[in-house]
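protien #1 (seq + structre)
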Amino acid sequence: MEAPCGKFFAWGANSYGQLALGHTEDQMLPKTTEDFNIPLRHATGGGGHTLLLTDSGQLFTCGNNNKGQLGLQHTEEMFRPQIVKALEKELTVCAKGGWDFTLVLSNEKKLYACGSNMFGQLGLTPVQSYVSSPTPVNLNCLVKDLSTGLRHSVLLTEKGNVLTMGSGKKGQQGVLVNDVPPKIVTTPNEVAFPSGPMTATQVVAGSHHTACLSDQGQVFVWGCNKYGQCALNPRTQPQVNRPHCVSQKVFRNKKVCQVYSGWTHLLAVTDDGQVFSWGRADYGQLGRPVQSGQLCDFTPTPIESIPQVSQLCCGSEHSLAIT
């Protein structure tokens, strides 16, 4: 959620204080924080924690902290936003939360990580079970963008390469070791694309899948395909271990300019503003009719009921759009 300024509102589950309201009671209606009036540029969440990025590039966190995912150098839950003091001298431009970990990108394109590292999702060596302070990830490149899944991470380098790390048994790392997907990848690994060198412009992560967009407007997806996330029939191919290029024919031969992912579904926007959806469908997250009783639709199909959109985003099993 992006905004140039204004009040911060929160609602829903609040078991860990992730709504930043000073307590742990769930909220049925949006409620604003009474004593947090710092202008915000971006707000996002993880499994049970919240990340707030201010206009001045400071990072505040609250909520579940059992693995140190708040970056506060301890593991106590915080019911109100706390500034991440370890990053006070940095200007934060991006922060993403996985299930119980956090990745932070500075204005100098340096990557910091904290929280659970049980699956190597932080990319830190030597591997520790968790890290409670934002720790620099040792990379020989600059990071341009990032995304976090349930227990894996994906990075986009300034040169357009794609790096993955963390859990890999569902194929979400995009690599094979002795023809088998590795259970975990503890250091950032560059993904090789079957069609040869490719320049990526965007990366996204679902719960157990990964996707990226090329500078030619092509969508690549790999990992768990239980619900057709990889745009292939899940009955014949429940898992995709290498990047699969989705045919541009399904996008009516238009170039894709943005791609988004929930836990088990994806959205794509073509250069003429049309929104396509595919993946899991039983919660209505695809925003279009599917066959009765059908749990998913693996073919990217236009959402005809909405006009051109200006913003899109996915929750775990829902979708949002602004026209």
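ok now protien #2
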Amino acid sequence: MTTLCQPRHRPFAYLWRYVAARPISHAVILCSVIAAVAFSVSTQYGIKLLVDALSSQTRQASVWTAFVVLVSFIAADNFFWRVASWTGSYTFVHVTGDVRRDLFRHLTHHSHSYFSDRLPGVLTSRITATSNAAFTMENMFFWNVLPPCLASLGAIIFLASVDLAMATTLLAVAGVVVVVLFRYASRGKPLHHSFADKAAQVDGEMIDVVGNMALVKAFSGLRREHHRFDQTVQKELRARRSSLLYLERLRTAHALITVVLTLCLLAWALMLWQQGSASAGDVVMVCT
């Protein structure tokens, strides 16, 4: 019990316990994702080689060389994504089981007075919600957070081969955007916590009413329980709507910044092409 209570205000430290418990499988996923992103970004460089070869005077040998390079990058990209996905299908599921087993044992070691003023449905639903949150966090990190970060780093490296000033500018703007979006996202934490709490209350209410259905009907409490449950669901709906709308505002801001940044980079690449400092393949690589 003491071990589980130590990281109670540090969710990443808590999750790291379960990652460290399965180091090999998580290392395989991490290395596979890094390799997949590297080959995915390199695919854009393969397209650049192919475009440059098609626009050159001596086409024959260089075109097929660029073709082989591009196909190899695409095949390796898909292969490593499948390795990461297959490994994650086993590893992430095992982590959810570890979380539920530990939390259930932690819960059963509490005293009798702990359960006197807490609904059993709320407690059990929070154990399930915590395991689902661990699954979601691992999925989001390996599939939604890490790949874009690595891809952005790879894109900056390839942009540096076209124009160092362009890559430096992109790096500076990306750093500012990350800090601003992170601060804005962190301000929505109370909304997300409120939604999680309300969702747990809805599950708890349903479990408690169904578990005591005989008493509810014996005292003609169906109408009262229906009304109370409707109010609980309505509070959960408002909390979920607020959480989702906050995330949508964050996504909208990110989309607008991405569009503006892409247009600026494309215009910059076209000016370099007009000056003879960039090839047609370089312009295509900047676009993609």
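The CA atoms of residues 71 and 137 lie 33 Å apart.
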